[in-house]
Amino acid sequence: IREDYDEVSEFVANYIKERIRQFEPGPERPFVLGLPTGSSPIGVYKRLVELYKSGQVSFQYVVTFNMDEYVGLPRDHSESYHSFMWKNLFMHVDIQPENVNILDGNAPDLDEECKKFEAAITRVGGIELFLGGIGPDGHIAFNEPGSSLTSRTRVKTLAYETIIANARFFDGDIAKVPKLALTVGVATVMDAREVVVLITGAHKAIALAKCIEEGVNHMWTVSAIQMHPKGLIVCDEDATLEL
Ligand code: GLP
């Protein structure tokens, strides 16, 4: 538990920096990092860019896999997760573009795209650290309430609550929010050797309580972290209101 959003961001950025440095990645042995979008990780990305610019971390041998992407939104749309990732992190650091993996929500065969994504994760030896955020309904990636805890990367229909929550990025217009997304599954996240989840703000307080003080439950999918041998939730004081 950290005081506020800035301290959460600072802590998590330093944590990731340390993990990458300790791993000593190289061309034959890259550090494989899973990444989220949303407002939660923006502070972490900002801080990681600063750490890169001051020479404290390099992404040269880091391979990334993003959690999710909207279906049908053009890749260069300002709210696509492709745009988000390049704008907030990738264009400011030394990552090699071929090491960036983001699901293609415009692929002609979406199921095939999901299979290819899982295969790519396997090919690099799995994910070392998966960073995530959650929705107010406790979803991780786009694993909406009711998602199987053994789910893998697939097409998912967004919950109405998620569409409302994300309308703020689409001129507040629910009609403009894509209704489908490609998302890693709960099991894809939990297969990572380490999972770090960011939870900030009073609007996530119920979700945090459900996820750590009640049982593992597919209606609050981030609760699966309870079963992970190396799971860490980093939250601010506001998010602890219901604990
Ligand atoms: C979307 C993303 C999630 C993210 C969530 C929370 O639903 N698919 O990965 O965790 O938004 O977003 P925010 O961090 O803006 O609250």
From TrEMBL:
GO CC list: cytoplasm
Enzyme class: hydrolase
Enzyme Commission (EC) number: 3.5.99.6
Catalytic activity: alpha-D-glucosamine 6-phosphate + H2O = beta-D-fructose 6-phosphate + NH4(+)
Intracellular or extracellular location(s): Cytoplasm
GO BP terms: carbohydrate metabolic process; glucosamine catabolic process; N-acetylglucosamine catabolic process; N-acetylneuraminate catabolic process
Primary localisation category: cytoplasm
Residue ranges occupied by any Glucosamine/galactosamine-6-phosphate isomerase domain in the UniProt entry: 4-226
Keywords from the named record: Carbohydrate metabolism, Cytoplasm, Hydrolase
Listed GO MF terms: glucosamine-6-phosphate deaminase activity; identical protein binding
Ranges annotated as spanning the membrane: none
Subunit comment: Homohexamer.
Family membership: Belongs to the glucosamine/galactosamine-6-phosphate isomerase family.
Protein name, as recorded: Glucosamine-6-phosphate isomerase
Species the sequence originates in: Parasitella parasitica
Parent-protein residues present: 5 to 247 of 296
